[in-house]
Design a protein that fits this description.
Layout lengths: L6 H12 L9 E3 L4 H16 L3 E4 L5 E5 L8 E7 L2 E5 L5 H17 L7 E6 L12 H7 L4 H5 L9 H7 L16 E9 L4 H5 L3 E7 L1 E10 L3 E2 L11 H17 L7 E10 L5 E2 L2 E10 L2 H22 L2 E9 L3 E2 L2 H13 L4 E6 L4 H5 L5 E6 L15 H19 L1
Parallel strand pairs: 4-6, 4-7, 7-17, 8-16
Antiparallel strand pairs: 1-5, 2-3, 3-6, 8-15, 8-17, 9-13, 9-14, 10-12, 11-13
Bound molecules: glyoxylic acid and manganese (II) ion (2 copies).
């Protein structure tokens, strides 16, 4: 089987998708169910139909583009990723797995290959937590990791419920129907940029993921006492932002001293109320993200956070409440898919690195119901979630080629 990845088409589609953005180029902002996201979805659907695939969308907007195999009863071989993008992101995160996956399928179709298992491209809804506070919403529902009831209760920052937002976006049906039946997938493989520097530093063109780290996130609400920035004397203050500052540093310290590079913690949201330069902050809301490949080590950091909340609250006489948003387990990748990926690399004499994914991905949740693996390509300086995210054309093409061969091997 000789496969040709159409480099120009793939690159121009990555650029075209990046034009659906609420930020000025090169930044990409595409938040789930905004008019921009809906336009991008329509564009994606047209590309999949143009490729001869049958497209279906579920009640939360997960999109499946299927190439029917010769055995309709055989479980599906899946690939895909997400097209939503956090504020001020780049154009490759998720997109390389979606458009690279589509190109892999087109290359296989063109080669005359006939799969036994259907091959399906999935575009997962809201991999990013931007709008509803929780990442991988679509794949959590598909895998039953979050219940329809719990999902219905999610609201965006305007207080609008997910159920209303997705219906207004045109996605009907019940959220209960999103969960996939047991045995739906024979295998699932996701192509993604590494979002870290290891492949580039070691000059290795591909990474095969063996394990996906366990993410947790929390919201912390700190309530102190507001007042006049001139009038209230320093000893009388209960400044919520000063308490937040101490807490943020305590979280950083707990992650830095865990003894492992795999422990990471980030406070990426800090909302200050009332947010006036001459007013003492009375309320602060933090968004905290903690990850590790080892659950026990992650637990130590989470415990340190709780202890710091308690100590800072006592010391500064402010109220601090933390709420767990999610604490997920890590996922192991499937040896058979790792082997199929490795075989394709060996065939092309491509060196690869076996590695851990520190970022989370929809594959983390699909792993609850199917064998999964991931293929990483390098990204410049390891940059991701920023406008200067960049993956080189030859790396994208290589990734799509190895993905295509792997899908072929798994779907025979
Ligand atoms: C996914 O975008 C992540 O934050 O790992
Ligand atoms: Mn991302
Ligand atoms: Mn991603």
């Amino acid at each position: 089987m000789s496969l040709t990845i159409n480099r120009d088409r793939l690159l121009s589609e990555i650029d075209a998708l990046a034009s659906y953005s609420d930020a000025e180029a090169p930044a990409v902002t595409r938040i789930v169910f905004t008019p921009t996201d809906l336009k991008a979805r329509a564009w994606m659907k047209a590309r999949c139909e143009e490729a001869g695939l049958t497209v279906r969308q579920d009640a939360v907007g997960n999109t499946f583009a299927r190439w029917n195999g010769s055995d309709p009863a055989a479980p599906v071989v899946g690939t895909g990723s997400h097209i939503d993008a956090i504020p001020n992101a780049g154009k490759y995160d998720g997109v390389v797995g979606v458009l690279g996956g589509l190109e892999a399928i087109r290359a296989l179709r063109q080669s005359g290959f006939h799969p036994k298992h259907s091959i399906e491209l999935t575009i997962f809804t809201s991999e990013e937590p931007t709008r509803f506070g929780i990442g991988c919403l679509g794949s959590r529902l598909l895998s039953g990791t979050v219940s329809a009831d719990a999902a219905r209760k999610l609201t965006d920052s305007e207080g609008t419920a997910l159920d209303e937002v997705r219906r207004n976006a045109g996605f009907r049906g019940e959220l209960e129907e999103v969960k996939l039946p047991v045995g739906y997938y024979a295998a699932f493989v996701e192509l993604h940029i590494e979002q870290g520097p290891l492949l580039e530093r070691q000059q290795i063109p591909l990474g095969i993921v063996t394990k996906i780290a366990a993410p947790a996130s929390l919201r912390v609400l700190i309530e102190g006492t507001g007042g006049h920035a001139g009038g209230v004397l320093m000893p009388d203050r209960h400044d919520a932002l000063c308490a937040a500052a101490e807490l943020i540093l305590a979280i950083e310290n707990a992650a830095r001293t865990s003894g492992a590079v795999d422990t990471v913690a980030t406070v990426g949201i800090c909302e200050v109320f009332p947010g006036a330069v001459n007013s003492i902050p009375s309320r602060v809301r933090l968004g905290v993200d903690i990850r590790d490949t080892d659950l026990q080590r992650r637990g130590v950091v989470m415990h340190a956070l709780e202890a710091a909340c308690h100590a800072i609250s006592e010391k500064r006489r402010v109220s601090i409440r933390s709420e767990l948003v999610n604490a997920d387990a890590p996922a192991e990748c499937a040896p058979a898919i790792i082997e199929a990926l490795s075989q394709s690399c060996r065939k092309h004499e491509l060196n690869f690195l076996s590695m851990v994914s520190r970022a989370y991905h929809d594959s983390l949740f699909i792993a609850r119901i199917a064998p999964v693996a991931m293929l990483f390509i390098p990204c410049r300086n390891g940059y991701s979630h920023r406008p200067d995210e960049y993956a080189a054309p030859e790396d994208i093409v290589r990734g799509a080629l190895v993905l295509a061969e792997t899908l072929a091997a798994l779907s025979k």
